[in-house]
Amino acid sequence: YHYFRLRRTLNQMKCSSDPKAIMSFIEKKCSENQDFLSELF
């Protein structure tokens, strides 16, 4: 569930944002949730 929600979020960000914004979003999520990357992969 988290994976598909993340994919939808990233797809929206790709259309509306630059890669730096996406990376900052991912870094923020990783700092908030240590399991974020394990959920991602």
What overall geometry do the principal axes of the alpha carbons give?
Answer: flat
Topology, number of strands: 0
- Global mean pLDDT: 69
Low-confidence stretches: none
Number of domains: 1
SSE blueprint:
Layout: H1 2-16, H2 19-32, H3 36-40
Characteristic terms for this protein:
mainly alpha, 41 residues, 0% strand
Description:
There is one protein chain. It contains 3 helices and no strands. The mean pLDDT is 69. 83% of the residues lie in helices and 0% in strands. The chain has 41 residues and is mainly alpha-helical. It has one domain. The chain starts with a helix and ends with a helix.
What is the structure about, briefly put?
With 41 residues, the protein is an all-alpha fold. It contains 3 helices and no strands. It has helices at 2-16, 19-32, 36-40.
